[in-house]
Amino acid sequence: MKFSKTKSYSILAAVVAVAGTVSAHRARVQPFGPEISHKEYLTTPETASFSAAGYYERESPVVASFFKGSAHDPKEAAIDFVKQHLTTSDFVVKNAYTSKHNGITHVYLRQLVDSLEVINGDINVNVDSDGNVISFGDSFYKGRGRRNPDEPLSIKEWVERETETLREQGRQLSFGSWRRGRGLIPRQRNSPKVPDQSSVISPQDALLSFARYLNVEVARPEDIDIVSTNSLHSDKVEVVMTNVPLTANGKVPVSQAYIQTEDGTLELVYDLQVQMKDTDNWFHVQVNANSGKVMQVVDWVSDATYNVFPMGTNDPAEGERKLVVDPEYPPASPLGWNRQAQNKNFTTTIGNNVYAGENRRNGRDWENNPRPEGKLDENGELVFDFKIDFDKDPATYVDAAVTNLFYWNNQIHDVFYHYGFDEVAGNFQENNFGRGGLGKDSVIANAQDGSGYNNANFATPPDGQHGQMRMYVWDVTEVPRDGDLESGIIIHEYAHGISTRLTGGPANSGCLGWGEAGGMGEGWGDFFATMFRQKKHHDYESVFDMGSYANGGQGIRRFPYSTSMTTNPETFKIMDGPAYWGVHAKGEVWAGMLYEVYRNLNLRLPFTDDWYTEDKLKYANTLVLQIVVDGMKLQPCTPSFIQARDAIIQAEKILTKGKYRCDIWKAFSKRGLGPKAKVIGANSPFGSIRTESYELPSTCEK
């Protein structure tokens, strides 16, 4: 198969410089494609172009149908309808699924012309539980097939026919590479003739045309090869360009297809998937196979903007909401927050890390919880921006609440990924990207959950099963308040998932159930919530309540978190008393100790607003977060305060060789958990006997 020679371009290091519009993580490239004039979407039979005899009326006077099919196989009903009333063209079923809450089956078809897909030729058919077609969309090409028998074969056809010929001869098609100027794979003498394709540019030239469209220069384009491989899932041969310096893995999958143009014709195109190396863009692009013109561009990575109370603003009493653009941390969420896989994008509060939705009805079918729909702005960016009137019931601003809940679940996921709560550690993700651990376990986050008031909770099963967060409305004020708007509560709940998965390993969810272990499960949540409220102006004298917004201005703990023994007098032995037998009370003591650790570190190290800094050991807040997370991994199942303390000290030693060891000891000793502290019955759900220790190790100066 012959292709034209590659056009020459400047040979420089591959960089992205898209007309000066590169953001922090994505190049701003406006998606585009042909506008198809005959595209239609019909929801009532009266607007259909075929005769009334072709469809049936339902018994219901409200809903009519285009077609009466089998209730036992709605997919077949859809296919029968398409064949009988819409097209004689070939097609392939790309997807078919049923929505559980309403029983509607959605069937998605892609048009085939001369065995090639038509990129913008789609039909979707919606079938009810009785087998009735209730609506459909159609953008199939309406003309005749593009090619006559004498026109050239496509790459796909040539390779597949070659494979079939060799299979009949009892031989396999060998893996091989294809450079411009020689055949795709060495042809056998008796294989089908491949006509001359001198008018068709090479796949490499198509890629370089797209690179020029992006204003990207490619180093050594002559090194780009084409490799054919057998698919693991079928007999088809997959064709991939390799040695591509633009892409993250050096590869670009390539195929041929047709695209409908605005003037009603079909054009042969190369279909390319280009995951950029230097930006977060993942382009799906079609380039004219004759002229090299870029015909259509789609970026599988969507931008998003969320109107929320961002990092550093705990609740409405502390500050205003802000429109936060693309807040994801790419190593943790490489596809962004509204996408789970290559072709699985969402415009609601669904993503790889969390399904956030309203659950006022206290339903158990979380898949069907109502979710706000993001709107596309003039730049094609997804925007979640919903109004709040705090003088009205939370039900009136539930979309804003769900958005805030979605933002914070993702934010926590990404931040703690940076500190080691990743796939192998048992984090919460649908898609683990082949990085280990078990997927299919993103957080199910219910806003304004109808199962209770004035509280929140988080269920943490072992790795591979969904964590579930329930956030409630608080009715202690004249106008109820929504816990979804207080990030500290969200962080506290998510922290249960973190500490449970990290303590004892992700397969064991039973390590923090009661006693001091259960108390620390609560305390880590309060500590993390307090840490993410920190700002540069806060100091050793700063005081923080927990849950004060939702609770009408009064904190929900006995004492606020403070280094002052007057403001917060809790020490290790106070847990001997019956008032501290519960896990929440014990958690207050543990969180207070960890807050002392942070404040001591902050006396020596500055604070940074950048939680994703690579210099985590240079800042007090990032260092303390790291050693606390590391301590969870180090400590045993059902740890005591003493064991958890030792794990944190060990974690610090591993990181800094003990540079801040005595600062940490001073913090614990101040609250009675010094080196000689003891406990009998640490994880007894009832009474325990503790001996406090206020001294320091002999190697530390007072």
Automatic annotation (TrEMBL):
<comment type="similarity">
    <text>Belongs to the peptidase M36 family.</text>
</comment>
<dbReference type="Pfam" id="PF07504">
    <property type="entry name" value="FTP"/>
</dbReference>
<feature type="active site">
    <location>
        <position position="493"/>
    </location>
</feature>
<keyword id="KW-0732">Signal</keyword>
<feature type="signal peptide">
    <location>
        <begin position="1"/>
        <end position="24"/>
    </location>
</feature>
<dbReference type="GO" id="GO:0004222">
    <property type="term" value="F:metalloendopeptidase activity"/>
</dbReference>
<dbReference type="InterPro" id="IPR027268">
    <property type="entry name" value="Peptidase_M4/M1_CTD_sf"/>
</dbReference>
<dbReference type="GO" id="GO:0005615">
    <property type="term" value="C:extracellular space"/>
</dbReference>
<keyword id="KW-0964">Secreted</keyword>
<dbReference type="InterPro" id="IPR011096">
    <property type="entry name" value="FTP_domain"/>
</dbReference>
<keyword id="KW-0865">Zymogen</keyword>
<feature type="binding site">
    <location>
        <position position="303"/>
    </location>
    <ligand>
        <name>Zn(2+)</name>
    </ligand>
</feature>
<keyword id="KW-0645">Protease</keyword>
<dbReference type="InterPro" id="IPR001842">
    <property type="entry name" value="Peptidase_M36"/>
</dbReference>
<keyword id="KW-0482">Metalloprotease</keyword>
<protein>
    <recommendedName>
        <fullName>Extracellular metalloproteinase</fullName>
        <ecNumber>3.4.24.-</ecNumber>
    </recommendedName>
</protein>
<feature type="binding site">
    <location>
        <position position="522"/>
    </location>
    <ligand>
        <name>Zn(2+)</name>
    </ligand>
</feature>
<keyword id="KW-0862">Zinc</keyword>
<dbReference type="InterPro" id="IPR050371">
    <property type="entry name" value="Fungal_virulence_M36"/>
</dbReference>
<feature type="domain" description="FTP">
    <location>
        <begin position="90"/>
        <end position="140"/>
    </location>
</feature>
<feature type="binding site">
    <location>
        <position position="496"/>
    </location>
    <ligand>
        <name>Zn(2+)</name>
    </ligand>
</feature>
<dbReference type="Pfam" id="PF02128">
    <property type="entry name" value="Peptidase_M36"/>
</dbReference>
<dbReference type="GO" id="GO:0008270">
    <property type="term" value="F:zinc ion binding"/>
</dbReference>
<keyword id="KW-0378">Hydrolase</keyword>
<feature type="binding site">
    <location>
        <position position="492"/>
    </location>
    <ligand>
        <name>Zn(2+)</name>
    </ligand>
</feature>
<dbReference type="GO" id="GO:0006508">
    <property type="term" value="P:proteolysis"/>
</dbReference>
<keyword id="KW-0479">Metal-binding</keyword>
